Amino acid sequence: MEDKVVLLLLFGGIAVLMFITGFVLVLA
After folding, report:
1. 1: helix, coil or strand?
2. Alpha carbons 24 and 28: distance in angstroms, whole number
3. How many helices (H) and strands (E) are present in the chain, helices listed first?
4. Over 80: is that where the pLDDT of 1 sits?
5. pLDDT confidence of 18, banded at 50, 70, 90?
6. CA 21 to CA 4: how far, in whole Å?
7. pLDDT over 80 at 16, yes or no
8. Cα gap 4→13, rounded to integer Å
C-alpha cells in the first residue's frame, strides 16, 4: 500500500513539473 502511494506521489510530482514547464515555455 505504501509503495503505491509513493508511486502515485512521484507520478503526480512529475506531471506537475511537466505542466509548469510547458506553461512557462508557452509564456516565454
Report:
1. coil
2. 6
3. 1, 0
4. no
5. very high
6. 26
7. yes
8. 14
Q: How high is the pLDDT of residue 20?
A: 98
pLDDT at 28 (0 to 100): 85
**Average pLDDT score, the chain:** 95
All three cell numbers of 14, joined, read: 512529475
**Backbone dihedral angles phi then psi of residue 14, each to the nearest 5 degrees:** -65, -40
| Cα torsion through 9, 12, 16, 18, rounded to 10 | 120
* Alpha carbon distance, N-terminus to C-terminus of the chain: 41
